[in-house]
Amino acid sequence: MTEEMLLLARGLLNTLHKNTERYDMPKIEAAYTLAYRAHEGQKRQSGEPYISHPIAVAESVAGLGLDTDTVCAALLHDTVEDCEGITVSMISERFGADVAAIVEGVTKIVTVAVENREEAQIENIRKMMLAISKDIRVIIVKLCDRLHNMRTLGGKKNSDRQREIALETMYVYAPLAHRLGMQRIKLELENLALLYLDPIGYREVMEAVDRRFGTSRELLASAKGRIEERITAYGISYEVEDRIKSVYSLYRKIYEQGKPFEEIYDFYALRVIVDTVEECYTVLGLVHEMFTSVPGRFKDYISMPKPNMYQSLHTTVMSRDGIPFEVQIRTHEMHETAEFGIAAHWRYKTGEAPDERVDKQLAWIASLIEADEDTRDPDEYIHSFKKTLFREEIFVFTPKGDVISLPQGATVIDFAYTIHTAVGNRMVGAKINGVIVPIDRVPQTGDVVEILTRNNQGPSRDWLNIVTTSEARGKIRQWFKREKRPENIVFGRDMMEKELRRLGHAFTASETEKIFEATAERVGIGSLDDLFDTVGYGGISLSRIAVRLKEESTRFLKMQQASETPAVSADEAALASLQEKSKNRAQKKQNGGVVVDGAEGCLVKFARCCAPLPGDAIIGFVTRGFGVSVHKRDCPNAVAGVSDPGQADRWLGAHWETKESGASSTMYEASLSILTEDKIGVLAEVSVALAEMKIPVLTINVAPPKDSRATIHITVGCKDTEHCHAIVSRLKAIPTVLNITRN
Ligand code: MN
């Protein structure tokens, strides 16, 4: 190797040298040499030599503890695609079939644009899942590849492309990392993606963290010290680390769940790592002896591991000063799994026999591929793919006491299919904790669920609308597809005819037939019977077919129009316009009463920095993926943003919708800073005044007094600027209140 080659790869070599006996250094050097030559002369957009990228990916892979073959594959991962004269078979000859297969798998994972809902997308995700299911090391290399691309995303010149990549990272790669338990990578991917998707939100959260942590830092440090002392006195050897919740998780809690910062209990967490499971419970006892625990926040993931293999004890306690913090207790081995997930399997191991945990992960991926084989509906496929990735688990028991994990929101039918396909197909009813329940009941963690069955029973078609897991839906469809073709055809035709009638035009039998045929062609199904069958067993959803039917019938009518006048009655026209109106009304709910020019129907949230109210001049910022965040026009963030050429195009004009007749019940949040004299009882007077006006108080904070002046920060529910003025003048009437500003 030349001096320059050594210099470029020094970080990678350092990582490998920590563990030389594991690595076949000559093989890795050969892979590096090949990659170096292949990428010679190529540059990244940042101007760096291209080889720096595969080196960085290989370093991450080695940092996760993966084997020689994976490190080689990481070094070579872009050669087949980007370099002339290098083929998979050539890599196979020189480095073996495994390295070649990983490189090929990584190359095949094409970009999956989640926003772009086209049929082709299914194929993309399927290909990706298939590549992963053959060798899970493929996705580990791909995740490290994405991680480095995200770390260097600032070097990309095109900001639209930056956001596309960030969006894909947020919706596909971070959830995949999560599902594989690779927490460290997941958190970094999410935070980096958020930085590009909503830079202002990112900064707001960082500032909130600084403010909150700034005031409680010492108190938390002293609590940590006391816990350490206590464990030491007990004679247990341990390690302690502390962490602040990731920017993205805080962002989600604040903006998506609307939680005030003060109510986020696991904002700060202390992690105690010990040697044995027994010591975990001992430490838990010690912690609970020293501090009051917050009810309902204790979780035992040691006896009930998460599906991604995560294990730990979690509890939230109150420090003596009333600041809640989380304590996580786990063994070293659990810690490895928590941080590195599936990759932990390869750490410090030289053998390659995959253990059962790896098999379990592969089984999960295989089930995702199988369950969706029968659906021709891309929307549903994407939906179930996302759902499977993002799922939160609950744990229920069989009557025999076995623990079954289900995604949150799963019904007793989903439970039945999780036990066994045959149990689901024969199900006639269910009991929860001994009591018979309706078939759409959603069990909770800790429930004992029993399925009542009868032979020769089959599932009901309604179940397709009740179940929430793609596994159950796939199995029900399978059953209908296999057992009931004649019935499916009758049923499917009936559903489609009803749908067509609903469109408000009476077609003759032969016209109907023509429209159905055109629809079949549109969805790529050859014969009408096959189409009815597919609709009948649920392989294509009614809503999707409805859209196609509408398009095809409109087209049909247009063709007729040349010779006839349209036959829509006045009543039907009135009905259609009514439906349109009620649709609009439903939309108004989610836009918070704001119209953003050029982004109608988009999800709207209100920026925390300025909390706009109806009556304020406003402007919208397109966050891509998180809707539009609405600021006051004079908000410093908005003023700075509009004049920043890098993001000026993401600011859109916005205005409040004119009020409908009748009082609007929508409440907005107004945040006020009240400057008062530092006297006892001021806060009480303010609270009483607000209560008299029936104003809901959402948060309240008192800053430490300075120069005999105190500042109270409150967030209150408020209808509009006028209402806000009324509140302010009422509060100003309190003699000890000196001044009030709206933030
Ligand atoms: Mn790459």
Mind explaining what this structure looks like?
The chain has 743 residues and is of the alpha+beta class. The strands form 5 sheets. Strands 1, 2, 3, 4, 5 and 6 form a 6-stranded mixed β-sheet that branches. The protein has a 5-stranded mixed β-sheet with strand order 12-16-14-15-13. A 4-stranded antiparallel β-sheet has the order 18-19-17-20, covered by helices on one side. The structure holds manganese (II) ion. Manganese (II) ion binds at residues 53, 77-78, 145.
Q: Which features would summarize this protein structure in a list?
A:
single chain; 743 residues; alpha+beta; 6-stranded mixed beta sheet; 30 helices; 15% strand; globular; binds manganese (II) ion
Short description:
The protein is of the alpha+beta class and 743 residues long. The chain has 30 helices and 20 strands.
Q: How helical, in percent, are the residues?
A: 40-55%
- Which structural class best describes the helix and strand composition? alpha+beta
Distance between the terminal alpha carbons, to the nearest Å? 61 Å
How many H/I helices? 30
Number of strands: 20
Overall pLDDT: 81
The ligands bound in this entry are: manganese (II) ion
Would you identify the regions where 5 or more consecutive residues have pLDDT less than 50?
A: 112-118, 580-589
Report the radius of gyration as a whole number of Å: 30 Å
Q: What is the approximate shape?
A: globular
β-strand amount: 15-25%
Largest β sheet strand count, sense and barrel closure: 6 strands, mixed
Spell out the blueprint of helices and strands.
Elements: H1 3-8, H2 10-17, H3 25-38, H4 52-63, H5 68-76, H6 79-82, H7 88-95, H8 97-108, H9 119-134, H10 137-151, H11 159-179, H12 183-197, H13 199-233, E1 239-244, H14 247-256, E2 268-274, H15 277-290, E3 292-293, E4 299-300, E5 313-318, E6 324-331, H16 332-340, H17 356-371, H18 378-390, E7 393-397, E8 403-407, H19 412-419, H20 421-425, E9 427-432, E10 435-437, E11 449-453, H21 463-466, H22 470-483, H23 485-502, H24 509-522, H25 528-537, H26 542-561, H27 570-590, E12 594-596, E13 604-606, E14 618-622, E15 628-632, H28 636-642, E16 651-656, E17 668-677, H29 682-692, E18 697-706, E19 709-718, H30 721-732, E20 737-742
Parallel strand pairs: 2-6, 13-15
Antiparallel strand pairs: 1-2, 3-5, 4-5, 5-6, 7-8, 9-10, 9-11, 12-16, 14-15, 14-16, 17-19, 17-20, 18-19
The protein binds manganese (II) ion (MN).
The site of manganese (II) ion has 4 residues, from loops.
